[in-house]
Amino acid sequence: MENAVRFEHELSQIRVVFSSSVGGAHEIQLHTVLEAMDMLGILDYGVARTADLFMKFAIGPATNLRAPVSFVEESFGSFVENGQAILKIIPSSDAKMEDVDGKALFLRLTTVVKFIYRHICLQSGRWMRCFGKLTWPRMSELIISNFLSKVVPDDASKLADFHTVMNTSSEFEIVLKEVMFISESDKNDQRLSNFADNVEVHFAVRQKAEILA
Fold first, then answer.
1. Is residue 87 within 8 Å of 112, Cβ to Cβ?
2. H-only helix segments in the chain
3. How many CB atoms lie within 10 A of CB 59?
4. 49: burial class by Cβ within 10 Å (0-12, 13-18, 19+)?
5. Domain total for the chain?
6. pLDDT in tens, the chain (213 residues)
7. What's the domain range around 111?
8. Alpha carbon distance, N-terminus to C-terminus of the chain
9. Among 158, 157, 133, 144, which Cα is nearest to 198's?
């Protein structure tokens, strides 16, 4: 995988080479490598380092609201044509940019996830689920700690604004389900929606207690 997915930190980009040589051997396609690992039952082990590096170089910076980055995707050919794909990581020129409802945050993350889906997992739902299991728990925790937890209202009068954030979070999870990054049926994978629901329950319980008092 290291030969196919290259984290070129000095160029601030991630390059995917769909066909590469290993140890002087003939060109081997990324698709063939993934299929072999899947058949041997070691896919999660095989892509674990790639998932870790995506967390470090793309997903982590995307969720850093104090110094967010943006992404530009470039592709040349396809995995059938021995092409390449590049995800350029561009530092924001406006560190004070506000993202009240999370739309900019989720747009950045959607770009990264769809790049993984198209160019690393090659639009395979099975491979994408494996990648998602390796990254989603950490990604969702970053989203909650860096964004959602910071926009939780301090009183019920501001819940309407939080509902907008809830809707944006829910829409993002729908996108993740469409590319099989998270499970369609497992409610535990809806980590952002579950967090938002817990906030609503908290206010409902507090309001009931105030009424009874």
1. yes
2. 30-40, 43-54, 60-62, 103-115, 125-146, 159-178, 191-212
3. 23
4. middle
5. 1
6. 888 999 998 999 999 999 877 666 678 899 999 999 999 999 999 999 999 999 999 999 999 988 889 999 998 866 655 689 999 999 877 655 566 678 999 999 999 999 999 999 999 999 999 999 999 999 999 999 999 988 888 777 777 888 888 999 999 999 999 999 999 999 999 999 999 888 877 666 655 555 665
7. 5-212
8. 61
9. 144
Structure tokens, 176:
């993740």
- For 88-146, the three-class secondary structure string (H helix, E strand, C coil) is EEEECCCCCCCCCCCHHHHHHHHHHHHHHHHHHCCCCHHHHHHHHHHHHHHHHHHHHHH
pTM of the model: 0.88
Residue 15 CB burial class (10 angstroms; 0-12, 13-18, ≥19): middle
Beta-carbon-side half-sphere exposure of residue 119 (alpha carbons within 13 Å): 27
What is the distance between the alpha carbons of residues 19 and 28, in angstroms, rounded to a whole number?
A: 5
